[in-house]
Design goal:
Length: 103
């Protein structure tokens, strides 16, 4: 993964509320979409539609989440806690960066 935007995309999605329920197949899908996002930001604008379709299935927008019947309520302890506190995301980021560099 070469672009900062692709890294930001991975980090944002990996810390999203829906990611807490994902199975291995969902993480593989995120990896695929992140590769597409990387190519998009390198100039391949033809990938925009594919990225949009795939992120919709993950619940990208309010409309997508409503269609998928997703809802996330903040618990009182969630409000005061930092989103990255206690999260395994940095390890996951490192693993993804290694995988994408190997391709």
């Amino acid at each position: 993964m070469d672009t900062a935007k692709a890294k930001e995309f991975w980090k944002t999605w990996s810390q999203s509320p829906q990611a807490t329920t994902w199975l291995e197949t969902d993480w593989v899908e995120l990896e695929i979409v992140t590769k597409l996002v990387d190519e998009f930001y390198k100039g391949d604008s033809k990938l925009a539609g594919e990225i949009r379709q795939r992120t919709a299935k993950l619940g990208a927008t309010v409309e997508d989440r409503a269609r998928l019947r997703m809802s996330f309520e903040k618990k009182p302890e969630d409000v005061s806690e930092s989103p990255s506190k206690g999260s395994p995301v940095p390890d996951m980021d490192d693993e993804l960066y290694k995988r994408l560099r190997a391709v």
